[in-house]
Structures are given as C-alpha cells and as structure tokens.
Amino acid sequence: MNSEKIEKIFFLLCGEIPEQTEEKRLEIAKMLCRDAQNSIFSELREDIQAYEIEDNEERLNIFAAASAFYTLMLLDEANLPESITTNEIKVISREKSKKAAVILEEKRSAVAALFKNKDFYFGAVRG
Fold first, then answer.
1. Where are the domains of the chain?
2. Which residue among 9, 63, 64, 99 is least packed, with the fewest CB closer than 10 Å?
3. pLDDT for 38-80, tens place per residue?
4. What distance in Å separates the CA atoms of residue 111 and residue 120, rounded to the nearest whole number?
C-alpha cells in the first residue's frame, strides 16, 4: 500500500485540494489515511501471500481512502446541527456520511477475501 496514493484518492473523494486545505484539516486527513492503512495491515489474513497484496494494492489503497473519507464525514457531521430549516429550504447534514458509507461498503467488498474476517471494516456503517 502506498500512503501518497491513499491520500491522493482521499482528496479526490473529498473534493478538496490539499494545497487549498487548512493546515489543521490537512493534518487530520493525513492521520485518518495513516490510521486506515494501519488498520488494513493489521486485519490482513495471516496466510496472505505477498503477490495477493501486490495484485490488490490499488483496491486496498482505495479502500483505505474510502475508510478515511467516511471517518472524516462522520467527524464533520458531529460538529454540525442535524438539520437547518428556513421558510424556503431544509438542509440535512447527515447525507454525506450515508453516501460515504455506500462507497466504503463497495470498496470493502472488493477486498474482503484478503481479511481475517471477511466482514471486516473499521466500524459500524450505519445508514
């Protein structure tokens, strides 16, 4: 797995440009990507062969980025009100994590056979 590729994919998912991202948020993003990568390594099957990791490296990178993205969306939503309503519009802030959960589940299933527990992911994905 490649940390730089994970971060690049992560920022594509977020729709953010690293050079234009606030330094504190950038640090959080990099930490989430590292944590996702470490979690993946710790959950790989004990009998996994090096070629299996190499053959699936891009999928693992994408899975790590999706996990970090999902976690960031949860953190963002934790700091916002659940919804904001005016006379003309209603904004619901929980939609991003729901969409991120769908992406995470899709990417997890693409690499599930590589894990000790084929149902492995980094936490409960709630819809």
1. 3-114
2. 99
3. 999 999 999 999 999 999 999 999 999 999 999 999 988 877 6
4. 10
Label each residue of the chain as H, E or C. Answer: CCHHHHHHHHHHHHCCCHHHCCHHHHHHHHHHHHHHHHHHHHHECCCCCHHHHHHCHHHHHHHHHHHHHHHHHHHHHHCCCCEEECCCCEEECCHHHHHHHHHHHHHHHHHHHHECCCCCCCCCCCC
Give bridge partners of residue 44 from the DSSP assignment. Answer: 115
Contact partners, residue 62, CB within 8 Å, separation at least 6 = 9, 107, 110
Q: How far is CA 97 from CA 43, 49, 72, 83, in A?
A: 23, 34, 9, 14
pTM of the model: 0.80
